[in-house]
Structure formats: structure tokens, C-alpha cells
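can u do me a favor
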């Protein structure tokens, strides 16, 4: 963990104005040293008889982006943010917050405790605590409704969205916006101030709650209906706003403090905070020590199907020039239709203006000529999963790409080393495995093989980050055939589920059990959505491991032409145009015939049995990937499962969940299941090691 600078706050003077400058890179988080520094500087500034007013500003990227989240798991140290903000609010001389970058969470609460606020025109403000399972706990829930009214305060706190400086000025959250030099404008503004503006704390009267009580009741009902009674932070936000309307400030602050502590102690917040840091940790690749990302301006994508078009859209949306190569005129037209449909939808929904949509499309070049690839800095092959076809296209790409271009394949399970060799320049070739829909899903597995150069890997990482994606390193291993991290785990997940189908559970029961755990969809709903033929082709393309049990049910369905939603018949039957179906009785009949044929007697599985077996298989597969060096850290697996497969983010991920149970209990529960299917449930060596050493997966992060 990085150490905060020893003196992260400086006090300067510009005539009669005292300037308190925070400098705690990278985001000026309000850790203990910063809080102490601000308090000391403020006291000194107030004590100085030549001080007329005080400006609080920050150096570097941003005004504080919040409390230091890393401190939440440590013992509290004074002054707390609440104590510091009381000090600011009660200062006898006017205090101005000078905001640039992103004033978030505790950073915005700091600004609200000041008497006046001025911001750069490109600054953004928000209270994103809800994304961490928290609420603004340093006065935000009390000061914000008093400044902008309960309705808008709810919107900001419930969504966690950032608002532009212009909008903040319109709604009364800040006093002034400048496109000039913020620091000098703030000092000039401070010189005009003659008095401390009464702030929330100074108010003796209560806020008039009468008009707002219906709003509060409606918000509470809405949260319960949308999220259920277990949605701690949203419900507590409603309680706090209600308190802001009905109680004096001090009582409201006390209630907020207790509500914040409750949220902080919740499993949900621990999971969300873990997910936040896991994503950032995942983006740290060891190759960064040896190389920096090369500049990427033009990307090219070969293959304009759903995946290729999705990557093209993601590229356009992030400001890259994009060449999309498809075969023949019909391929080009189909890709254009998909991309055009995205922009039409986005414009219709008001997410983009017509001008923005049209401007993005001017950076798209659609062609059927491979020789256009010579201009691209990064070329992504995104055709179907057929090794020979991919190898021959990659060879053609290798022949025309410019010498320093990076070539990437979007394969999800084919042999990356062999595909890289096919380009004739394996050092420049990596895997970039996007997840559908690529224009939305943030996950990209960066496939690393023995011959790949650090430069190529880092260029892939830099490109993924520039698209706002979360890159996760996945090293190919011997016998690579099940995919990188995500698909390898999904394979274990499905096998655990299929074994239960053979033994008496139904697809709907398994799907329901996994939904009740928090997955948005169960495994058979996903199979129907993806198309059963895709996984079938993958199974057919590789030799079967004789040590791994094979369940033929899905193969039999494909042979019947039941491919899922695309044929309106899969594990479920779908009415025309519907995406949710009813259980397919023919599949249930097929499963029971299959069971009889194999001589298996059906037994009952409770929802808990189902979840246990699947979750144990997932954790064990994750542990195996760690042992094989495919995944670098347990938290990378968590990131992949949360983004790629809808593992509930509020649980952090499967490896964090396993730590909560403890690896030794996981190992002993696995030992009960292992005889049924050792390939799935015999504890992986890493798990056994952790159990023996009484360690946790987190120790390997
Ligand atoms: C809060 O304020 C509670 C209060 O209401 C009440 C308290 C009592 N703390 O994201 P990036 C690190 S809760 C510690 O890659 P970007 C981050 O881990 C907080 N560290 O950059 C990373 O470290 P590393 C409410 C933090 O430009 C580095 O900074 N605030 C914090 O893509 C760069 O981060 C939030 O939830 C933090 N608060 O995005 C805001 N924030 O270099 C959370 C960041 O070692 N932060 N780091 O990997 C963000 O949303 C983004 O970081 C931000 C910059 C938009 C600011």
C-alpha cells in the first residue's frame, strides 16, 4: 500500500487570503494525515489576524475524491471527517472551496461544509458512496437536502451520478463557475467576501418537512420494491433525508453517523469495496515494469459479427479511428446495420445527440479489403471460433500489418500460442477476449503467452483502459482449452449443474436457486440466450478428457434442433418475441430418459444443495487457475466473475466469499463431494495449502 505523503497539506498566503492546499496524490483522498493537515492549517489561518478569508484547494488531478477508502478497515483516527467539517463550518472567517476535477463523496462533503463554493467549468461533483454500499457519512445527507432540496438530494445520493459544474451552479450546490484560472479566481472571489454565510449548522430552525414527507414515503416504498428490505444503504439514505427534514442538524448528523457505521459493517459494503479495489488491482500487470503502452490511434477489427461490431462501437465511443473489415458486400452491410442500430437506439434514448452519433460514425471505415490493415496500430481478429480459419486470417493480418502493430485475437478458448505463431510475429501478438455485449461489458481478458512481448501486452492493457474497460491478465497454460479465467470457471459451473440435472434437479430449479443467490440469470437461461450450438461447437472441437465426467443432455438437445431463444425452444419454450420462457416439458422428458438409460435414480436437491455444489465448483476451479498460473491473483478471478458472469458484486466475488467461509471449511466441504466427481470437487492444491496454513485467498492478492 502506498504511503500518504508526510505533509500532504500546505498553508500559503496571498495577501489577506489564506490558501490551504491539499496534495495527496493520486486523488487527494482525505486520509488521516490530510485531515490533520487541513485542521492545523485552518486553525493557523484563523488565528492569523491578517486573514480575511480562507480558500481550500487541491493540487494535482482533482479536489478530494472522497474519504480514504483504505482506512475504512482500520481503527478510526481523529479528527474524523465530521469533526473536521464542523471546524470548517464554524470557522469565524469565510471559507471558500475551490473545486476542480471530481469532488466526490467526502470531497464534496468538505466543499458543502465550506461557506462558499467555486468550481472550474469542467469539474464534476457527486456522492458515489452508494456504489460502495455506504451513504455520505460526513454530513452529506444533512447538508445536501438543505442546499438543493430533498428530491434532488435523493437523486444524487441514490444514483451516485456525477453532475457537471454548470448543473451544480443551476441547482444551487455551488456559487460560481469559472473557466479561468481556478486558484486566482477563488482568491479574487474570497477577497469580495465580507462575512461568514450562515450554513446548515448555524440554522436554528428546522427544515420544512411538510412538503417533502410524501416524497420520503414514496422513495422508501420504491427502494423496498426495487431492491428489497435488505438494501441497507439506500434505505438508510431515506432515513437520513427524513431526519434532515424533521430534526435539527446535530440530531440529523448523529443519526447519519450511526447509519454510516451500520452500512460500513455490512457484508454488502465489504463486497463492494473489495470489488472496487479488485478492479484497480487487476489492471496492474507485471509487464508494466518493462514496457509502456504504445500509442494507439487507429484500430482495425477483422470480423463484423456481433462481437466485432460491438468492439468497433466501443472503440468509436472512446475516440479511436476504427477500420472494420468484413467479407463481401453483404458482410459489410450487416456490420453497418448493427453499428447504425446502436447509434439510432442511443440517439432515440437521448444518450447521444444526433451530432455526436454522426461525428462518431465519421471515424468508422468499413471495408472488405485486408490491405487497409496496414494503417492500424492495433488489429483485433474477431471471427468465429474455428482454429484453421483464425490461423489463416491471422497469417494474412501478419503479412500486411505495419511492423510495430500489435495483433490481438479475440479467441475465448483456442490455443493462443499457436494462433500467435500463425501471425509470423508472435512477440507482437496477444489475446484480447471481450465479453458480449462488447460495447457495454467492461471486462477484457488480456491473454498472455510465452512469446508475447511486454510491449504488446502493455499496449493491449493501455488500449483496454482507454476504452474504460477493466483488463485482467490471463496467462495461457499447458492444455489451454477451456478458455482463460471466465470460461474455464463457467465450464466447471455448468458441469456441476449438469451433474445435478442427471441426478434429479430440473433446469428451472437450478436457475431459480442461482438467481436467489444473486445471479441475474441461471446457467440454463444463459445457455438458451447464448445459443446451445455455440457451446456444442466448442465441445466438439476439442478432445474429451477421459477423467472428466461428460453429461450428454445439451448435445442431445442440439441434435433435436433445440438451440435456445433463437429457435424459441431450449431448456425453456419462448413465445414469439419473448425472452423469458416456460420450462420445456420435452427436455424434462429427455432428461428422465437419459437418467434411466444411465441407470441413475433421481434424488432431491434443495436450493441450498444446488448453490453449495455450484459455488464450491467455482471456487475450486478458481484455485486451480491460480495454481496453474492462469490467474495472477484471487481478486482477478473475482473481477472476472462479477463483470463477466454476473456474480453479485455486493458479495465481492467467489474468492472473497470463500474467504468469508474460510478455505479450511471449503476444503472439508469439498472432500465430501470429491468422490462424486474428483475433476470438479477434489480440492485444488492451492486451496489445500491455504487450508493447511490457515491462510486466506486475500493473502495471495
Ligand atoms: C466517502 O467519501 C465516505 C464519506 O462520505 C464519509 C466518511 C466518514 N480512497 O480509479 P482510479 C485510488 S467514500 C482511496 O484508477 P481514475 C485508486 O485505488 C469515498 N484510494 O483513477 C487508485 O489507486 P492505485 C467516496 C482511492 O482516474 C488511484 O486512486 N468516493 C480513492 O480512473 C486512482 O484511481 C469514491 O467512491 C479513495 N476514495 O478515477 C470515489 N479513490 O493507483 C472513488 C481512488 O493504487 N474513486 N483511489 O491503483 C473513483 O471513483 C475514481 O478513483 C476517480 C478517479 C473517479 C476519483
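np, heres the sequence
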Amino acid at each position: 500500500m502506498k504511503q500518504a505523503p508526510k505533509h500532504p497539506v500546505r498553508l500559503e498566503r496571498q495577501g489577506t487570503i489564506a490558501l490551504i492546499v491539499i496534495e495527496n496524490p493520486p486523488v487527494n483522498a482525505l486520509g488521516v494525515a490530510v485531515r490533520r493537515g487541513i485542521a492545523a492549517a485552518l486553525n493557523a489561518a484563523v488565528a492569523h489576524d491578517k486573514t480575511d478569508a480562507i480558500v481550500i484547494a487541491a493540487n494535482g488531478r482533482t479536489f478530494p475524491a472522497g474519504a480514504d477508502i483504505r482506512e475504512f478497515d482500520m481503527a478510526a483516527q481523529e479528527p474524523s471527517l465530521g469533526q473536521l467539517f464542523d471546524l470548517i463550518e464554524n470557522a469565524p472567517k469565510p471559507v471558500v472551496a475551490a473545486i476542480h476535477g471530481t469532488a466526490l463523496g467526502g470531497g464534496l462533503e468538505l466543499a458543502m461544509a465550506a461557506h462558499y463554493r467555486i468550481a472550474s467549468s469542467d469539474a464534476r461533483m457527486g456522492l458515489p458512496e452508494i456504489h460502495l454500499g455506504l451513504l455520505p457519512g460526513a454530513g452529506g445527507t444533512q447538508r445536501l437536502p438543505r442546499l438543493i432540496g430533498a428530491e434532488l438530494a435523493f437523486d444524487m445520493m441514490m444514483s451516485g451520478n456525477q453532475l457537471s459544474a454548470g448543473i451544480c451552479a443551476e441547482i444551487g450546490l455551488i456559487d460560481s463557475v469559472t473557466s479561468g484560472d481556478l486558484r486566482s479566481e477563488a482568491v479574487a472571489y474570497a477577497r469580495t467576501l465580507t462575512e461568514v454565510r450562515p450554513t446548515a449548522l448555524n440554522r436554528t430552525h428546522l427544515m420544512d418537512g411538510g412538503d417533502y414527507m410524501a416524497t420520503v414515503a414514496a422513495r422508501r416504498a420504491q427502494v423496498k420494491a426495487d431492491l428489497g428490505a435488505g438494501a441497507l444503504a439506500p434505505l438508510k439514505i431515506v432515513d437520513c433525508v427524513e431526519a434532515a427534514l424533521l430534526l435539527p442538524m446535530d440530531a440529523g448528523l448523529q443519526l447519519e453517523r450511526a447509519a454510516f457505521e451500520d452500512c460500513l459493517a455490512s457484508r454488502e459494503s465489504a463486497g463492494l469495496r473489495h470489488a472496487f479495489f479488485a478492479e484497480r488491482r487487476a489492471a496492474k500487470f507485471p509487464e508494466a515494469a518493462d514496457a509502456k503502452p504504445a500509442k494507439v490511434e487507429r484500430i482495425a477489427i477483422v470480423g463484423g459479427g456481433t462481437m466485432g461490431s460491438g468492439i468497433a462501437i466501443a472503440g468509436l465511443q472512446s475516440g479511436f479511428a476504427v477500420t472494420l473489415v468484413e467479407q463481401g458486400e453483404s458482410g459489410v452491410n450487416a456490420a453497418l446495420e448493427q453499428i447504425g442500430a446502436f447509434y439510432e437506439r442511443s440517439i432515440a434514448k437521448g444518450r447521444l445527440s444526433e451530432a455526436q452519433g454522426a461525428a462518431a460514425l465519421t471515424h468508422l471505415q468499413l471495408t472488405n479489403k485486408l490491405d487497409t490493415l496496414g494503417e492500424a496500430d492495433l488489429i483485433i481478429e474477431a471471427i468465429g471460433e474455428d482454429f484453421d480459419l483464425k490461423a489463416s486470417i491471422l497469417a494474412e493480418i501478419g503479412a500486411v500489418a505495419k511492423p510495430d502493430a500489435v495483433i490481438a485475437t479475440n479467441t475465448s478458448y483456442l490455443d493462443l500460442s499457436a494462433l500467435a505463431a500463425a501471425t509470423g510475429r508472435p512477440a507482437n501478438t496477444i489475446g484480447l477476449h471481450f465479453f458480449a455485449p462488447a460495447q457495454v461489458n467492461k471486462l477484457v481478458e488480456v491473454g498472455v503467452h510465452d512469446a508475447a512481448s511486454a510491449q504488446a501486452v502493455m499496449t493491449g492493457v493501455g488500449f483496454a483502459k482507454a476504452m474504460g474497460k477493466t483488463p485482467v491478465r490471463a496467462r495461457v497454460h499447458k492444455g489451454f482449452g477451456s478458455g482463460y479465467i471466465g470460461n474455464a470457471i463457467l465450464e466447471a459451473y455448468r458441469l456441476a449443474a449438469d451433474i445435478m440435472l442427471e441426478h434429479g434437479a430440473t433446469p428451472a430449479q437450478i436457475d431459480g436457486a442461482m438467481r436467489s443467490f444473486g445471479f441475474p440469470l441461471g446457467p440454463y437461461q444463459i445457455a438458451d440466450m447464448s445459443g446451445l450450438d455455440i457451446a456444442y461447437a466448442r465441445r466438439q472441437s476439442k478432445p474429451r478428457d477421459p477423467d472428466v465426467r461428460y453429461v450428454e443432455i445439451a448435445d442431445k438437445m442440439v441434435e433435436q434442433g433445440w438451440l435456445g431463444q433463437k429457435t424459441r425452444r431450449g431448456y425453456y419454450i419462448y413465445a414469439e418475441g419473448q425472452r423469458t420462457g416456460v420450462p420445456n416439458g420435452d427436455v424434462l422428458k429427455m432428461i428422465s430418459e437419459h437418467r434411466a438409460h444411465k441407470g441413475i435414480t433421481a434424488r432431491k436437491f434443495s436450493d441450498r444443495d444446488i448453490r453449495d455444489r455450484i459455488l464450491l465448483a467455482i471456487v475450486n476451479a478458481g484455485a486451480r487457475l491460480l495454481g496453474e498460473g492462469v490467474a495472477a491473483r484471487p481478486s482477478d478471478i473475482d473481477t472476472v466473475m462479477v463483470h463477466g458472469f454476473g456474480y453479485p458484486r455486493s458479495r465481492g466475488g467467489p474468492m472473497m466469499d470463500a474467504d468469508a467461509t474460510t478455505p479450511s471449511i471449503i476444503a472439508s466441504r469439498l472432500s465430501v463431494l470429491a468422490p462424486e466427481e474428483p475433476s470438479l470437487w477434489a480440492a485444488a492444491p492451492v486451496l489445500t495449502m491455504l487450508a493447511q496454513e490457515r491462510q486466506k485467498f486475500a493473502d495471495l492478492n
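DSSP finds 29 helices and 19 strands in the chain. hope that helps!!
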